[in-house]
Amino acid sequence: MNGSAPHESLRGEKDARQNGHEEPDAGEDGNDQEVIVIQDTGFTVKICAPGIEPFSLQVSPQEMVQEIHQVLMDREDTCHRTCFSLQLDGNVLDNFAELKTIEGLQEGSLLKVVEEPYTVREARIHVRHIRDLLKSLDPSDAFNGVDCNSLSFLSVFTEGDLGDSGKRKKKGTEMEQIDCTPPEHILPGSKERPLCALQPQNRDWKPLQCLKVLTMSGWNPPPGNRKMHGDLMYLYVITVEDRHVSITASTRGFYLNQSTAYNFNPKPANPSFLSHSLVELLNQISPTFKKNFSALQKKRVQRHPFERIATPFQVYSWTAPQAEHAMDCVRAEDAYTSRLGYEEHIPGQTRDWNEELQTTRELPRKNLPERLLRERGVHSDFTAAATRGAMAVIDGNVMAINPSEETKMQMFIWNNIFFSLGFDVRDHYKDFGGDVAAYVAPTNDLNGVRTYNAVDVEGLYTLGTVVVDYRGYRVTAQSIIPGILEREQEQSVIYGSIDFGKTVVSHPKYLELLEKTSRPLKIQKHKVLNDKNEEVELCSSVECKGIIGNDGRHYILDLLRTFPPDLNFLPVEGEEMPEECKKMGFPKQHRHKLCCLRQELVDAFVEHRYLLFMKLAALQLMQQKANKQESSGALENGASPENGTAESEKSESDDGKIDDNVTGLDQVKELAETIASDDGTVDPKSREVIRNACKAVGSISDTSFDIRFNPDIFSPGVRFPESSKEEVQDQKQLLKDAAAFLLSCQIPGLVKDCLDHTVLPMDGATLAEAMHQRGINMRYLGKVINFITKTPGRAQLDHIFKIGISELITRSAKHIFKTYLQGVELSGLSAAISHFLNCFLSSFPNPIAHLPADELVSKKKNKKRKNRNLGNADNTAWASMTPQELWKNICSEAKNYFDFSLECENADQAAEVYNLQKITLLREISLKTGVQILLKEYNFDNRHKPTFTEEDILNIFPVVKHVNPKASDAFHFFQSGQAKVQQGFLKEGCELINEALNLFNNVYGAMHVEICACLRLLARLNYIMGDYSEALSNQQKAVLMSERVLGIEHPNTIQEYMHLALYCFANSQLSTALNLLYRARYLMLLVFGEDHPEMALLDNNIGLVLHGVMEYDLSLRFLENALAISSKYHGSKSLKVALSHHLVARVYESKAEFRSALQHEKEGYTIYKNQLGEHHEKTKESSEYLKYLTQQAVALQRTMNEIYKNGSNANIMPLKFTAPSMASILEQLNIINGILFIPLSQKDLENLKAEVQRRQQLQESIKSKEKKHKGSPSDAAGGQQEAAG
């Protein structure tokens, strides 16, 4: 479509390189060659395995030999082999060698699969692999949250007919076969919110049974003399035919022996069926196994790979069906040995996590392939191990390293990871809020680690850190600095302070390393006084500690105050806060003194100040110029910075000045650069301009713009030397300004974005994300809701208000639940959780908790036994909670923490007053606390019996926070791709995004949130460029990935379903498209309810598809609902509403109800006329359509009159009733989904691009307060405005 000239596309590549990077790193120019390295051409080798025909395999030179192993272990015909080597001309290939390093390996080489003798380790791997193959379709691991399995339901709704190419198995295109009526609960207006539909039963889940039992035999381990015969271990199997057999795993393979359950006889049976693979052996002794195992593998390989691949981090499901508990040897064995990752099949072999994490940081990073290798990392393994360890610690299965101390004080080491509990040990946080501070410190520290990792300074190391919340406790897991356990902390810390600023030390090497982080992190180097009144220089907050490990690396830890304090929540004696803060009731005493501003806020604030700086300087330069012209040089009232600020706010409003201003800004930029480069050429007046501007915005330098924060300001116990008094004053002012900026810019900005629907949160998590992106902490949630209630367009923010309130309630409930759980011992867990949920959500007025039955409590309780429980001594206090008490606590928590007054005394009032759904509250509280409940229909409103019983609580999972490594190069490609697409260079955009996808795959593996965004954008581009089947295939991947990585009902997944439905429709898979839209609607009802702006889009989609299949009445129900919602959220005069009227009118036309059609089209016409004027093409189109409808109506009336007059022998002109064409429906679908096809000539395109670029430059210069949005622009549903414009 565009960019057809070859030089054009080349130029595109170069531009992308320049635009894509905010700060071009060294070595970026190498990008062009680098790209080629990745796409090294693949070649084909022949594989020859025992017992099957040789086959070809496509490989790439980058791959390791090991990856071919993996492929063979996954292929249907070779999946039962695990213990083999690959040989080329009789030479065994090294597993970890890259293919390109192997001599003689080339296109067409023959690789032989050679069976190798087993060891105990190999035998265990083999049995585990066979078990995995037997359970490959069984979802229990996903429900149990094990091994990075997670759920996906897409195939249930597409019935597997998306195929590889998206071509449908044609069943004839008659419409009649499609049953379009959705289940009752999906129709507009339905109040029912069933839960069971969330996880529909998948046909493949009733797996074909291959064996009754496969387990380790009780005769393990083999006695000495049998070891010397090569016995490695014994298995016990019961076949489906009910044959009980005992199997020996030996170095040569598997065979039947003569043992029984009670009698050990290791001699081979006759026949012994010795086979190298367990599957081959079982095939021979059980016909059912042979038949079902091969059928199972056929099914397994037919599933989409994205349904099978492990996710990088565990996703937990908050509901699960009742599962039969089956015998499973591997799980049983895992439970008793510590399996800490795939490598350690033998207990005692633990990984040195710290070494692995730090080594990846040290890998070279000069060019792309090197950076990719670096970023691959061991992160997900570490997170998984840390999570298992934290759970083991809380469940009491790990011995403390200081067992004699009180339980709260204990620390643990497990699998080379250090665990500590979130309590205030040794009054460390006494001045900061005690236990409350100790609870938030780990997450603050984690944010610090994330930030320093992102800056990535060579030679500076952080610890692997994971924070796990489980059963009411917070556990921090950290990798261990080599040698730290042998030394006292006092002697190891050579930088920073271990007592919050009494004794402080510094170190030149640390200052040098931290100096490199100070600019990106906006941290100011500063001096503090220690207890001996000596000045010590730091470049971080005092409690950031530097320790050199025995490995010689410089580690920094305790990064909990990397970011400046939030003064709105830190009242300080004698400090006056700005007006904006006081108006909103700040400063407010918080529970702890560790409230920090978020990094996003700091960045936004600095950017805001930068624009202000540029404007002030430009204004002064212009005034100088004007003065020069007037009085040739006499400077009249050189604008002082103060009134400069006031003027700059105004100067933008009158358009006349803008053009001057643009040039003015350019001048300032040039000037600032010249001064910064310390050039003697600048005249003093101009220097003065820059100096004034610097002073006005609080820059720490007076020759260039540079804003930094001192994180120690207002820190209890930190003192500053007399010499830096003025600097400290400036810093205090800066912090006050930042706190005010959050209230006066960021919160109103967020609400404005919600009003414009550029931000569309659908549940608590997406609202939190939207707040965080703008640097607003969750503790401001009450203020955000209050701000919404005072906003003029209040009704258009209903959805945000509702999400805000439900988030407020569930977060307050979570705080209470946390302490509640700490008093519960393991045996009472399900009773306690179900009691809490009853008090929280059930209408039953007085639920009674069931204490664990007496027969389980030993009568001869030992009075002296030390209380092992971490909580209070009384372990039954939780049972006395009542709904009244809980809701009273929720309201006071909301008031104390969020400063918001809730008007409800129980769940029913909350649901009524705020129009909340109890099922939504249940989802939110379960996700926040890690509770998993049984999938069934809950009756919340029964006043005669409680909603939950203890049988309904299936599990409690950890809630895990970790650092997610960033694929920086891939991300740059992705952003440049997005930018290209916005400028209309689709083809180049497409190439860049494909490249990004390639890199993401290299770093993250196949599954990741960011890959999901990549696939979605690619699919959209494929679609716009007319490649529907490719669009379908990419979007299918995006849906599967979103289900697997984010969750089956995550708002993102709902959106992906909608996109997929559109592409299905375009591929004329109508019934599939409807199924997908119905699924999306069900999920949205469950997650939020009906009254959401996104529901209007969804219902328009459903209505259009139904119109296309001639289900007119049903179609109207959805379209009229969409019209009502659009009118509410976009205002009844908006273009979206006009379009909605038109869609409704078209359906009435198809029904030949012309009066109603006319009525709606007139409404639409009026809106177009008022908004766009008489002569706009939309208005003209509408007016044409009105004429046509009127003619039809008249014709119909004539015919009716004829019939009345002449009875049955009237000669009737046949009326034209036409079903809408698919093309016209598709056209409307594209319009409402904001997809534009622009048929333009090459010349138009050139002009358009030039225009776009000109506008962008203009925009850049005026962009004063507009913070850049991070969302992907192509997805903003603003398509109608463009379509209408």
From TrEMBL:
It is found in: Cytoplasm; Cytoplasmic granule. It comes from the Eukaryota. Residues 8-24, 647-660 have a biased composition (Basic and acidic residues). Keywords: Cytoplasm, Repeat, RNA-binding, TPR repeat. One of its GO terms (cellular component) is cytoplasm. SUPFAM superfamilies: Hypothetical protein c14orf129, hspc210, TPR-like. The keyword Repeat applies. Its main location: cytoplasm. Coiled coil: none annotated. Residues 1-33, 163-187, 630-661, 1256-1285 are annotated as: Disordered. GO terms for biological process: intracellular distribution of mitochondria; mitochondrion organization. It holds the Pfam family CLU_N. Residues 331-570 form the Clu domain. Residues 630-646 have a biased composition (Polar residues). InterPro entries: CLU-central (IPR033646), CLU_dom (IPR025697), CLU_N (IPR028275), CLU_prot (IPR027523), GSKIP_dom_sf (IPR023231), TPR-like_helical_dom_sf (IPR011990). GO terms for molecular function: mRNA binding. Belongs to the CLU family. mRNA-binding protein involved in proper cytoplasmic distribution of mitochondria. Specifically binds mRNAs of nuclear-encoded mitochondrial proteins in the cytoplasm and regulates transport or translation of these transcripts close to mitochondria, playing a role in mitochondrial biogenesis. This is Clustered mitochondria protein homolog.
